[in-house]
Every structure is written in structure tokens, then in C-alpha cells.
């Protein structure tokens, strides 16, 4: 059935921006029909060109900003917007922090939990150059092996050397590695023909340790001239303690493949968090904003209310960062993660820090939780830090059955947080303190927060 829409593709019209979506796009409405517009801020009056219409909403591009928001700041340039590296960079930082606070509050209000208090977001003094990890695609651009970022919603590589939100030492390393790969005529990955060698360069750098890991992700098992390439990388970048070839032969958007060959140095780098040392391997998760992570973890520790006598479960433990920090204030900690390298690192990290009251299992959190419940483990506190999709319902069921006094929920996605809080609510848990957002991802719309739930 043909639907009459209030706007048509190609139309240019004047609108006022009312709001920002969770992705940081401006929202205007024509007869209640929303148009989502990049690089448009609330209260701005703009001329928008409609680029796409669907039954329920449209997308548009800014043609001209007629009235500029007082909160608009000088962005770094078009490429940064087009690639989505820093989609909120045009919004004053203090407003970004408010935006994140309000996003969480609004999502709770939508499910009629208006009484949930959300505190102002804890931000950074310098909200740029914070990322300790980069994964940049490598493609052939104008006949040359090139590094950069994909244009949004495409696989068109835009060459970039200054990534703005990454540690500048990492930006420098990417250019150095790119030039060495060019010098030895390595070929860039071609997705369309599934040919060429180098798919991605990944760099990790310890914030305190300055140890650097370079991961060269290849489509092929063989990396031509590997010896000289590695020698030159080590000579040019003295901080490098680990060079790894990761082999990913699949036709996939997943960045890392299953095979990691250490080409030089160690398989891990070390870094510190809250005074503990952690070994981190290529496939393991490690928080990307170390300065904010310390604030986040400290909050989680405080909210857990540990006195030294508690049993704690840290589900989605990664390399054991939260588990081991909490183990210093608890009787026993159990951690679980689904990635084998992360659990190897977690066990190694317990030894490294002389911590003997933390036990790690390799499993899915939902299965481990069910087993621990069967084994009669009675945690006082359950800490969860799941990926964006949030918690599995079976996990929540087992957690509630175990009856911990507190659940500390570290969330990187407010939508799934809200859903999971409701599910905990159905099983006798309520929010016990104001939710605290911590800005782990300045210049982007991503929102991290800590929520504490207590048994009714
Ligand atoms: C957001 S990270 C948190 C890691 C850790 N807490 C930290 O702060 O470094 C989420 C972790 O969940 C793990 N993960 C994803 N799905 C899982 C599952 N079903 N069961 C257990 N762990 C899972 C990932 O490997 C990753 O280490």
C-alpha cells in the first residue's frame, strides 16, 4: 500500500532540530514524521535535503545552518564526520556529558521509571587522544597501500593520519608501519576480490607502561618479507615489545582471525590499572580509555560495599581487571569469560600480582552462573560488565536464584541496561543508588555507566 509521506527524497526544507538520537544525529519533525540529520544540533535551524525516506522516518543532509547552536564547536573537519571516528566532535564537551546523562534518564522514563536518578556524567579534563588501542583498515588507495578509516556505512577507505581520539604515539606507529609495508611492497587487502595480504593494523599501547603491541592482520598465512618488516618496525618504534601476525582468511567484517603468530618479542604487553599489573594479549578485551577506567572501576569497587568477607562473582571478567582489583577487598572472587586468551591472561595476572583468592573459568557467563548456582556458591556481590547486547535472561535467572545482596552493573549500552534492570526488578532487585555515567568514549555517543541493584 502506498503511504503518503510528508517529505520526499531530494526535497530541501527548513526545519528546527529538537533532539539528538542515541547515535548523535539531530532530529527534526515534519507532521510528527522524524528526519534524522547528521551534524545537526538541538535548537539549530537548518535547511535539510532529504536523502532517504522510509515508512516511519527519513534521513537528511545539512544544506545550510541558518541558526547555529551556542554549543557548536569547531569540528576537526569533514573526514572525521564522514568516517564516524568522532561523531559528536561538533558538540561542546560539557554538552556531550549532559547528553549522555539525559539519554539514560530518558530511557528509564520511557518505561515509566521516572524516579531513577542519573548523576552528571564524569568526564575527562582532556577529552581527546585517549584511546589506547587502534584497529585501522588497510586498503589500496590511488595505487598505494593506505591506512585510514571507512566512510560511514561503506567500505570506502578515507586516508587519515591523525585520528584525534587515539594516543598520538599510536597514530605515529600506524604511519611508521604503513610506510614499512609500502617499502617492502606488501599488498593491501581487496575485499571485493578477496585478494592482497594486509587487512588491518592493530596497535595497543600501555598508558602507564608505554609498552606497544603491533598486530598485522593478514588474509594469507604467509607474510612476505616478514623478517625485515619486523626488524624495521622494532628499529623505528623502540616502545614495541610485541609484534604479532594475526591470520584472518575469512570473508568477514570481523577484524581478528583465530591464529596469532608472535613474530617478535612477547605475546602480551603489560599495563597498570589502580596499581595492579595486567598482561594483555591481542584477542583479549581491555578497556580503551585507561584514565576513565580507573574512575569506573573505583566506583564499582565502592558500590560493591566490600569489607573483606565477601564472595564476589565477576561475570564477563575479561583479563581479570575488575576481579583482581576486587579480590584485594573480598574473601573470594570468581571470574568468567568466553575468550580463552582473556582467561589465560586473567590467571597469569592473578599470579603476577600475587593474588590467590581469585578463580577464573573459561565458559559463557550464563552457563558458568548456572553451574555455580548448582554448586551452591552464594555470592554476596555479582558484578557484570557485559558487551553491548547486555545480559542473557538465563544469566539473570541464575543470578537472582543465588540471591546476592548486590549486583553492580557496568553497562556500555543504556538500552540493554534498562531492559536488564527491569528483568532484575521482576526477580526482586531494585536500583539502590543513583546511576553514575562515566565518559569512556568522548566525542562519540557511546555511554558507559555504573548501576547498583539491591535485593528488596
Ligand atoms: C565489556 S568487556 C568487559 C571486560 C572486563 N570486565 C573489563 O573491564 O576489562 C565484556 C567481556 O565479555 C566477554 N564476553 C562476551 N560474551 C560473553 C559471554 N556470553 N560469556 C562470558 N563472557 C563473555 C568478552 O570476551 C569481554 O571480555
From TrEMBL:
EC nos: 2.1.1.190
InterPro entries, alphabetized: MeTrfase_TrmA_AS, MeTrfase_TrmA_CS, NA-bd_OB-fold, SAM-dependent_MTases_sf, TRAM_dom, U5_MeTrfase_fam
Binding site for S-adenosyl-L-methionine: 287, 316, 337, 385
Keyword terms: Methyltransferase, S-adenosyl-L-methionine, Transferase
GO molecular function: methyltransferase activity
GO biological process, one term: methylation
Enzyme class: transferase
Residues annotated as catalytic: 412
Pfam families referenced in this protein's UniProt entry, alphabetically: TRAM, tRNA_U5-meth_tr
TM region(s), chain numbering: none
NCBIfam families: rumA (TIGR00479)
Name of the protein described by the UniProt record: 23S rRNA (Uracil(1939)-C(5))-methyltransferase RlmD
Organism whose genome encodes this protein: Lactiplantibacillus brownii
